[in-house]
Model the fold of this input.
Amino acid sequence: MKKTVIVSSPGKLIIGGEHAVVYGRRALVTSIGMRLYMQLTVDENTDKQTEKHLLNFILHDTNQRYSIDLSESSDTQPIEIEAVIYVYNQFKSSLSETGVFNIEVRSEIPIGAGLGSSAAFSVCLVGCFHLLCYGKLCLEDINELAYKVECLFHGTPSGVDNTISTFGQSLLYSRVSKKHLNFRLSNLAIIDTGIPKSTKRMVGLVRSFVENTPEEGEKILNDIETCVDAMVEHPDEINELFQRNQQLLKHLGVSIVEIDQIVEILLKNSISTKITGAGGGGCLIALTSTFTKEQILE
Ligand code: MEV
Done:
């Protein structure tokens, strides 16, 4: 018998509070209209000649293809395959004994740009197995396991990325609470520096800063949270708050020369720009007010 499930999940923009959220502070985050789509098809093996689960895995956007035996896991697999094996093991007892899994992934979310591609992947992966085994989606359960998958990718993330990818909309998020907000920004530009970033590396960099200079570190983290609260309470002041949040991120050490240059050029035109996500490359966000896309590009 053949069974197919398809799920999709959105990318995200952190409006304010990245990095501080790792240390329990609040972050403001919103989902975006770019999604990752995953299809899981299971061909259940009825003749039982092979007591195995085989996996064919295709990432269409990067043209990566893998075929593996899921029972023979090793640490030398690409991280996406490790993630599949991890999730498969969580659901193994609810699956039939043998068969072939075909997973196909297509994504509108650029990879490694800070727009939540890995979280959308983790959420879709858990969602597919959930739907296959239980015939429905329980978002709280999916989010919990997707967080563990995110830990494989990023070490000890805050959980903000998987949570927004699971629930969508906009959230005021901390490690202990999430509040849905009716938060909307118009004229928001996403600027891709084209420089790949590593969330794990940037989170490690901030950890060193906070551990080596705890007093200064704590003050910056608190100031970032104050910025976030002000963004929610006074959305009309968001341009100044972007600027303040960016200064604090720079102080934490997650900006780079290229980002500083973009921020400076746009600021000369009264446009405040900030990192969104981990920094060190990836994407920036800017409120463009009345400027057109062409003017911003110029
Ligand atoms: C990455 O999208 C956001 C960070 O705050 C890391 C995290 O929250 O886990 C940099």
User: Anything to note?
Assistant: The two ends are 56 Å apart (CA to CA).
